Amino acid sequence: MSLLGPPTAAARTASAAPTPTAPAPAAVAPTVATPRTDTLMLGAVSASTAILHLSAAQGHWADSRLYGSAFIVTGVIQLLWAAAVSGPGRGSRWLLRAGVGFALLAMAVWLCSRTVGLPLGPDLGHPEAPGVPDVCAVVCEGVLVLLCLRVLRRPGAPLPEWASAVALLSAFVALIVFTAVAHVG
Q1: What is the pLDDT of residues 146-157, one digit of tens each?
Q2: In this structure, are residues 146 and 38 in contact, taking their beta carbons and an 8 Å threshold?
Q3: Which residues contact 84 (CB under 8 A, 6 or more apart)?
């Protein structure tokens, strides 16, 4: 018995009836690019650049094992970074910074090799002429740097559509160049 008197018939019926539970809210699908999509694009650009480096390794190996090894190591690091940025823990600040640093290093080595020549190896101090595949690779690395810096500057915000288009276009062009060079020689 309650302090307010005996329960009414309506109260007895209401308390005996099971209370319905509210359904769990359905997950809402995102309508804009998510950071997951962005990191997949970063991975695609890095993987495309890696393919260009790995494909160039054989020709450079014939000139110098040092140069060939450098291309293999560069390509493998870029593939590993692409997998890491696209997988669990993707987009972490340290991983994005590492990608920026490595891409800038690769760009600096390329610039040095095309302007004053490398300070070691068989072409010591002799600049190499730029070619379509290596220009494509350095452009992709530049795109990667800019996109990583954008993600670092605005964490959690999706890349603008133009940036996504640039990422996909650079990866696509890199693969076209690789295919053309692989078939033409």
Answers
A1: 999 998 998 888
A2: no
A3: 90, 95
